[in-house]
Amino acid sequence: MSIASSRRTNQTTSQRKISSMCQHQPPCPTADSADREAAHLVAHHPEQGWSLLCNGVLLFEDTGELLPDGQVIAPHRVLGTPHVATAA
Prior knowledge:
The protein has 88 residues and is of the alpha+beta class. It is built from 1 helix and 5 strands. Pfam families: DUF5999.
């Protein structure tokens, strides 16, 4: 493969659009919408700590996310108040 054809391949690959896996009616929220986690599950692997949604979002057990465009959403667990017992 020549350098020129290698460059064309890289440019084509980086410009590809990610098609939606969602075939639901009404369609599930897109990966860039605020309610993206409401999309339907395509694959669920709790033993590995991740799930794939039909909008292409990877959800992780720690509540982190990986969006189809490669953007990382940091874990956003809701922290509960600790129960503190006091001695009388």
